[in-house]
From TrEMBL:
Record Gene3D superfamilies: 1.20.120.1770
Enzyme class: translocase
UniProt-recorded name of the protein: Plasma membrane ascorbate-dependent reductase CYBRD1
Native source organism of the sequence: Periophthalmus magnuspinnatus
E.C. numbers: 7.2.1.3
UniProt KW keywords: Cell membrane, Electron transport, Heme, Iron, Membrane, Metal-binding, Oxidoreductase, Translocase, Transmembrane, Transmembrane helix, Transport
Region annotation (Disordered) ranges: 234-274
Transmembrane segments: 7-30, 50-70, 82-103, 123-142, 154-176, 196-217
Amino acid sequence: MENYRLFLSAFCAAAITGSLSIIFVLIWVLHYREGLAWDGGSAEFNWHPVLMVAGLIFLQGTAIIIFRLPWTWACNKQVMKWIHACLHLLAFTLTVISTVAVFDFHNTAKIPNMYSLHSWLGIAAVILYCLQIVVGVVLYLIPITPVSWRAAFMPVHVFFGTLLFVGIISVALMGITEKLIFALKSPKYSQSPPEALFVNVLGVLLVAFGAIVVYTVTRVSWKRPNDQVLHSLHTDEVGEDNGKVGPALTQLPETADAEASDVRKRSSKQDENN
Ligand code: HEM
Ligand code: HEM
C-alpha cells in the first residue's frame, strides 16, 4: 500500500475521533442531561443524539472505510460486501429507533413534528439512506444483477454514499446547536457554560471524524487492489474465489508490492466494477 504510515495515522485518528464522539455524547446525556429511558420524556429524547452518533455517523463511517483496510484485502470480496451491507443495516436500525424516540418525545410533550430545517434535512437523509441500502443490496448483494449494471452504478453509489455521510454530519451539527439553544437557559448558550463548551467539542470531533473518513475513501491509491490481479500475482491463475489469495499487499515482499501497486493503478477501473 502506498504511504502505509499515513494510512495508519488516518485510521488511528478515525478510530480515536469516532470513539471519542460516542463517549462525549454519552457523557452529555448521562452527566449533563436527564440520562436515558423510554418514558416519553427528555430521557427518551436523549436516545436520539446517542443512536444517531453511534449508528448513522460512527457505524456508517466504519462501513464506508471497510474496503480500504489492507488487513481485509486477503478476504473474499463477497464477505467484505456482506460486512459493508450489515454495518449499514445495523446503522439504519439504530437510526429508526432514534427517530421513533424523538417523534414519541414530541408527541408526548405535544411539540409539533417536522417544523425545523434540521428535521427536514434529517428525515430526507434517513429516507435516502434507506434507498441507498435497498439499491446497494439489489445491485451488489443479489447475484442476478448484470455485471454491466453494477459497473455503471458504482460511481453513483460511491458519490451518493459519500454525499450522504457528509450531509448527515451537517444535520447532526444543526441538531446539536438547536438542542443547546433550547436546553441551556440559565446560564444561556451564549454565556458558554461548561456543557456548551463540552458539546461544542463533540461537534468538532464529528467534523474531524467525517473529514478523515472522506479523505481515506477518496484516495485512489488506498483502494482495495483488484482481486483477480492480486490472485494472479500469487497463483498465476485467475479465479473467482479470492478467499484463497495469500497475504495482503502489506505482507508481500517489496518487489511484489511495487508490482501489485503498478498493476493496481492500471486496473483501478476494473476494480471499481466488482
Ligand atoms: C429532531 C433527524 C441528529 C437534535 C429530529 C427530527 C428528525 C431528526 C427527523 C424530527 C423529529 C420530529 O419532528 O418529531 C436527525 C438525523 C440526525 C440527527 C438524521 C443525524 C445525525 C441529531 C443530533 C442532535 C439532534 C446529534 C443533538 C441533540 C434534535 C432535536 C430535535 C430533533 C433537538 C427536535 C427539534 C426538531 O424537530 O428540530 N432529528 N437528527 N439531532 N433532533 Fe435530530
Ligand atoms: C463501496 C457507501 C450500502 C456495496 C462504497 C463506498 C461508499 C459506500 C462511500 C466507497 C468505498 C471505497 O471506495 O472504498 C454506501 C452507503 C450505503 C451502502 C452510504 C448505505 C446507505 C451498500 C450495500 C451494498 C454495497 C447495501 C451491498 C453489498 C458496495 C460495494 C462497494 C461499495 C460492492 C465497492 C467497494 C470497492 O470495490 O471498492 N459504498 N454503501 N453498499 N459499496 Fe456501498
